[in-house]
Amino acid sequence: MITPVNLPKLHAPIQAELEEAVLRVMRSAAYCLGPEVEAFETRFAAYCAADHAIGVNSGTSALHLALLSQGVGPGDEVITSPFSFIASSASIRYCGARPVYVDIDPDSFLMETRQIEDKITPQTKALLPVHLYGQMVDMDSIRKIADQHGLAVAEDAAQAHGSEWKNQRPGTFGYPACYSFYPTKNLGGCGEGGMIVGDDPTMRQLTSSLRSWGTGQPGQYDHVLEGFNYRLEGIQAAVLNVKLHYLEDWIARRQDNAALYRELLDGTDVVLPTALPDRRHVYHQFTIRVARRDQVVSRLKEFGIIPGIFYPLPLHLQPAYSELGYQKGDFPEAEKAAGEVLQLPVGPELGPDEIRQVAQGLQDALAS
Ligand SMILES: *Cc1c(COP(=O)(O)O)cnc(C)c1O
User: Fold this and answer.
1) Pocket of ligand 1 (CB under 6 A)
2) In this predicted model, what pLDDT tens digit does every residue of 101-150 receive, in sequence order?
3) How remote is the CA of residue 234 from the centroid of ligand 1, in Å?
4) What is the side-by-side strand order in the sheet with 152-153?
5) Could you read off the pLDDT of 99-111 as tens digits, one per residue?
6) Stretch 5-21: mean pLDDT, rounded?
7) Closest-CA residue to 164 (of 59, 4, 275, 51)
8) What are 149-186's pLDDT values in tens digits?
9) Ligand 1 centroid to 130 CA: how many Å?
10) Counting atoms of ligand 1 from 1, which one is nearest the CA of 87?
11) The overall pTM is greater than 0.90
12) CB 171 within 8 A of CB 163
């Protein structure tokens, strides 16, 4: 069976190191924040080449606090992508603000930056670009629009650890970037985790306070603000400190697997993902488009190959967001992508033999 993620297999070669790290925290009793979290913040900030990193308990919490730090509040509008995980929009709603969507570019699945200006109103407060599948949104366009219209920006980098736009990683453009360490992300813990990365000391101070009940001093009871219980756990940071050592190697293996898929599927009916210029694609997902997707998926499953479908329904058509008032047909490219995308297993735990097996299975599924 070849599955989209196989964490036991990924962890097997470093199992002893991971277990030792977890036990060390258990014995130390530094469970909520603490030295492992501080070490991980320093090292992950360095990995991104950013000044600050603030560990929180999920990518969703990172987005919520990043938006709050940029002044997003009730009545504001935040322009984002309808083709993402629901957390991108939920975090906007947690601030009392409203997600406003632009359609996606069909080649990259990223928000179409040329449509952003049409959506700007006096209520627009911020842009929330989503670096989907491991490839970054054009940050020159984002910066230009934000500067021209005086808008804040928060980057959703939950799928983009190590990704680059012109050699710069999320969190180094003057905006907070939000990472997730959910177990299946390119860098994941053994549980939930997230991080806000950025260069602004005011953002750092505010989000550090808000993640831990709005205290002025960590561990104290002087609540300057009403904050949240969004702290990163020591055990997760210990796991992430170990796994960060391997992230670059794992990204290289994802890229090798993607290159092999391209070679094997070249000239077939499969629409391969576009790797855009000026970027480092870290292949959180290897996303193809196929016709008759349901049929292809069931054939693949017969062959023991489990693909992913991210995402089968765009956010503007989710029942949870019916009150936003969007309708079918509002974002045709996002809707078309939702009906066609299929993710082939590309994780670093897979070797060339497995990639060949998936590519062959896919060709057989398409021919039948
Ligand atoms: C995973 C993900 C999130 C949320 O991260 P959690 O750690 O699961 O809260 C947000 N945005 C995108 C695009 C994601 O893939």
Assistant:
1) 58-60, 84-85, 87-88, 130, 156, 158-159, 180, 182, 192, 194
2) 999 999 999 999 999 999 999 999 999 999 999 999 999 999 999 999 99
3) 20
4) 98-101, 77-80, 124-128, 152-153
5) 999 999 999 999 9
6) 98
7) 275
8) 999 999 999 999 999 999 999 999 999 999 999 999 99
9) 10
10) 10
11) yes
12) no
Ligand 1: centre distance to CA 360 (Å): 31
What burial class does residue 272 get, using C-beta atoms within 10 Å of its C-beta: 0-12 exposed, 13-18 middle, 19+ buried?
middle
Q: Are 326 and 250 in contact (CB under 8 A)?
A: no
Q: Which atom of ligand 1 is nearest to the CA of 58?
A: 7
Q: What letters, b where the CB count within 10 A reaches 16 and e where it falls short, cover 66-100?
A: bbbbbebeeebbbbbbbbbbebbbbbbbbbebbbb
Q: Ligand 1 centroid vs 159 CA: distance in angstroms?
A: 7
User: Which of ligand 1's atoms lies nearest the C-alpha of 193?
Assistant: 7
**CB distance 157 to 133 below 8 Å:** no
pLDDT at residue 130, as a whole number: 98
Q: Are strands 279-280 and 164-165 parallel, antiparallel or unpaired?
A: antiparallel
Extract the tokens encoding 205: 């101070």
